[in-house]
Amino acid sequence: MNEKQNLKEEKHHKQQEFCYTRPAYRASRRLTAVKVYTAAAESQHLFIYNVPKINLRAELKNLCSKYGQILLINVVPDYKTELFTECYHVQFDRIQAAKIAKRLIDNKSFYGQVLHVCYAPEYENIAETQAKLDQRRRDVLKRIENPNRLPFDQRTLGDDVNFMTISKSQLQKKRKYEDLGNGNASSDNNTEEFLKDFYSIYDNKSKKNKT
Q: Where do the RRM domain residues begin and end (predicted)?
């Protein structure tokens, strides 16, 4: 879709207010708005608001290229923005890269402005929408076939884009389950040796305390 044909600000482009009434057990480390995304709402097309109007296309491209290959990055002309700022339309080659970029760039400080990133599914063509839904269908089928599957595998770890979503604790859990959950005999032996050493140390301490 051509930018000149879509100059109206869509409702899903507007930034919602943060939620301050979440219970403590549901509160995250940073404030977020209450919003639900479906497969249809997500897209490889992003709108990035509040970019200072000082010709920062190259700098913004460098920022976005950290999360995946960029197919298109242009200023949206005649679009409603704040004073001295402009809106950019960025298209990634993969929807996974766009999802990570949205998560990490949104509310990020960029040359004195706080960026706002939103999906722009209205810029998709029929082929892109079909590919997006097919990919989601394959992901769901994989999870149904193996409900105990971790949210990442060996191929995902090799992908720089998806690797950025894996936290340190998740990576430690993955290594733990790879060693202990795949029937690895050497890892089982290592575990037994560790337990023997642990209990031997505990027994020695208990004997000393008794004496």
A: 44-122
pTM greater than 0.70 (yes/no): no
Single-letter code of the amino acid located at 90: V
Compute the distance between CA of residue 175 and CA of residue 157 in angstroms, rounded to an integer: 11
| Phi, psi torsion values for 72, nearest 5 degrees | -155, 140
Q: What is the DSSP string of 117-165?
A: EEE-GGG--HHHHHHHHHHHHHHHHHHHH-TT--S--HHHHH-HHHHTT
Place of tokens 């979503």: 165
**Percent helix, strand, coil in the chain (nearest 5)?**
50, 15, 35
Q: Confirm if 46 and 117 have CB atoms less than 8 A apart.
A: yes
Confirm if 27 and 12 have CB atoms less than 8 A apart.
Answer: no
In sequence order, the β-bridge partners of residue 49 are: 116
Radius of gyration from C-alpha coordinates of the chain: 24
Residue 69 DSSP SS3: coil
pLDDT tens profile 84-131:
999 999 999 998 899 999 989 988 999 999 999 999 888 889 999 999
Rounded Cα distance, 168 and 174, in Å: 10
Encoding tokens for residue 31? 């404030």
What is the SS3 assignment for 169-186?
A: HHHHHHHHHHHHCCCCHH
